[in-house]
Design brief:
640 residues, 6-stranded antiparallel β-sheet
């Protein structure tokens, strides 16, 4: 097995002299007057007859809301636990840096979200026992963090505004939606109960927890600006509405641009409220990057839902990566987003991603450090990695959605923070995957592994041991692609993705085992391919993947369809795979009641897997199945 192997002759390594960049870093506002001057000057230029265009989600409307929104897409450490070998934690990117997920465990209990209910199950006995339930009502809660007997839930809510429109007053009637982030503190010492809820203007971007300290990244639009709309149709009506909206902008206050928060107790009484931070804690990039406020909020979960620090950047944040010492937020340049709004404008020649570094080594504060730029856009959080004080970034120059005949390539850039507040580019290698896009990235020590795809899947191995001169040292070309890469042993890498034909048409879930012990000669030593129509949410959600090193066990959720002339059948479950030194062996297909063949229910889809002692626990919306870790035979079923 394998494919065409050899270094790509078109890749180039760029060694860059260490000179300070010309552009300054983020600029802080020294007072609310300078903050208002900045946002008003730019907002007056951006405002139109219906409000201010939001390049990320549609259009801002009354109360900073928007409509025509596109849903945000988001996707070395074996787990997020405390180092104990007795149980697995959330599959996170960096060991010791936990990430919000729908299921958490401390080895004695499993805490999970299922269909609007928080469920606590005791797993200290032979079989799990539910010890607590908390119905969350209409709250839309998607993930949680667990610290001792405290749980922090992450949710969202929306308010809608329907403007009154008559037949001759406007050409269309937009429905505005205003998002807010909900943080809910739960006490688990007895029956689960809500202690406090904090609601913040904006949407949830990402979160990380180191020890008991939680950093939450959110993004918010202006609020409280009741835009005027055209009184009638035609250019004159729109021009007059634009002028009225400009006057609304000129009369705005800091509270319209900085997110507001409200904290309530368990009985719903307001205990605290106000703007999330002062104007002097807000910053902006040297190049205008939009009017969305990217906020970083710090909470000590051991003390509950109190904000101990917060700061903001006027930029559109899309991707978050964190080590134990630093948090990095990637923001897209305004030209790229503004081109999305008005397709009539000429598309930009390049995409630029700015990356802002924050020091999180002090649990009580989040301190801005530096900003750097890379060419291209980032796939997800795995496109960034910190190693020995340097940040390595993998990017692709042009998104596929720009043009069906796009020309693109991918690159890896090495950045180093300078005392001047710049992240200076110290080395770069480009030319990876001409005309292709990055589908997965994994940085491991001095090595990086990058998968690009359009018709075939080149797996590139990169040597980053000399950060000033990174280089591609090997390449493996195979059909299909890997959308997620995970280390599974010395010199071995497991890939989960799709098989594909020679013209790039996907065929079904493919699990590949790569031997990368010789970086110049990567090979695929084994693979498992399921039938056409199969897929795994591991491709876009790394939290769904489990690898338990002591047993050499990988567990991958699978949805698999079969079609014939008389029936349509489906398998909803998970695939248990034994990972050997050079082999992959299917151990079992695990399914919950209602997840097999014709008798199926979407609620039976296995979403997470956890190992505790000698048991494997698979979790779906319907319940928890306990299996023997050695042979994966079912031991018990606990329905919700």
């Amino acid at each position: 097995p394998g494919g065409e192997v050899g270094a790509d002759p078109e890749t180039t390594t760029t060694t860059i002299e260490r000179e300070p960049l010309a552009a300054p870093s983020l600029t802080a506002f020294d007072a609310c007057e300078s903050f208002l001057d900045y946002v008003i000057a730019h907002a007056v230029e951006q405002v139109g007859p219906y409000g201010i265009a939001d390049p990320y989600s549609g259009w801002w409307g009354n109360d900073g809301a928007f409509f025509r929104a596109d849903a945000a897409q988001e996707a070395t450490a074996p787990g997020g636990n405390d180092g104990s070998p007795d149980f697995s934690g959330t599959n996170v990117q960096v060991l010791g840096v936990d990430e919000p997920d729908m299921v958490k465990t401390d080895g004695d209990r499993i805490v999970l979200l299922s269909e609007g209910t928080l469920i606590v199950a005791d797993v200290t006995g032979d079989t799990p026992v539910i010890t607590g339930r908390l119905h969350l009502g209409s709250r839309s809660v998607t993930s949680l963090l667990l610290s001792g007997d405290k749980v922090l839930l992450f949710g969202s809510s929306w308010t809608q505004f329907h403007p009154l429109v008559t037949e001759d007053s406007a050409r269309f009637a937009p429905t505005y939606q205003s998002p807010s982030l909900e943080l809910i503190e739960i006490d688990l010492t007895g029956d689960p109960e809500i202690v406090r809820t904090m609601t913040i203007d904006g949407r949830f971007v990402s979160g990380r927890m180191v020890g008991d300290t939680v950093r939450i990244v959110s993004a918010s639009n202006p609020v409280g600006l009741e835009w005027s709309h055209p009184e009638g149709t035609g250019l004159q009506a729109e021009r007059e509405a634009t002028e009225r909206n400009r006057e609304i902008v000129r009369n705005s206050e800091p509270e319209n641009w900085i997110p507001y928060y409200i904290t309530t107790d368990g009985d719903g009484r307001i205990t605290d409220e106000g703007t999330l931070f002062d104007c002097t804690r807000a910053t902006h990039p040297v190049e205008f990057s939009g009017l969305e406020m990217l906020s970083v909020v710090t909470i000590d979960l051991s003390d509950g839902l109190d904000v101990i620090d917060s700061t903001g950047v006027l930029a559109t944040g899309t991707t978050v990566y964190a080590s134990a010492e630093n948090l990095y937020v990637a923001t897209q340049d305004w030209d790229t987003w503004s081109w999305r709004i008005d397709a009539a404008e000429r598309e930009p020649d390049t995409v630029t991603t700015s990356i802002h570094q924050f020091d999180i080594s002090d649990p009580a504060t989040t301190t801005y450090v530096a900003t750097g730029d890379v060419e291209g856009y980032l796939l997800n959080q795995f496109a960034m990695d910190e190693h020995e004080g340097l940040l390595r970034v993998a990017s692709t120059t042009r998104p596929a959605w720009w043009d069906s005949n796009f020309e693109s390539e991918s690159l890896v850039t090495v950045l180093e923070a300078q005392p001047s507040g710049e992240m200076e580019t110290v080395g770069r290698v480009d030319g990876l995957g001409k005309t292709e896009q990055i589908y997965s990235v994994r940085f491991m020590g001095d090595m990086a592994y990058v998968v690009t795809f359009r018709q075939t899947d080149p797996l590139y191995t990169l040597d980053l041991s000399d950060p000033t001169s990174p280089e591609v040292v090997g390449e493996l070309k195979i059909l299909g692609y890997s959308a997620y890469l995970h280390p599974v042993g010395e010199g071995l890498l497991l890939g989960v993705g799709q098989d594909a034909t020679e013209d790039g048409r996907v065929q079904g879930t493919q699990v590949s085992l790569f031997d990368v012990s010789d970086p110049a000669n990567p090979t695929r030593v084994d693979q498992l391919t399921l039938s056409e129509g199969s897929n795994s949410n591991v491709e876009y959600d790394h939290h769904a993947f489990l690898y338990w090193d002591p047993a050499g066990l990988a567990v991958i959720p699978i949805t698999q369809w079969w079609w014939d002339d008389e029936s349509e059948e489906v398998f909803l479950g998970a695939l248990g795979i034994e990972v050997g030194d050079g082999s992959l062996t299917e151990l079992a297909k695990l399914s919950h009641p209602g997840g097999d063949r014709n008798d199926w229910d979407w609620r039976s889809q296995i979403s997470r897997s956890i190992v505790i002692d000698d048991r494997l626990y698979t979790i779906s919306s319907k319940g928890i199945m306990t299996s023997d870790l050695n042979d994966l035979d079912e031991i018990d079923w606990l329905g919700f």
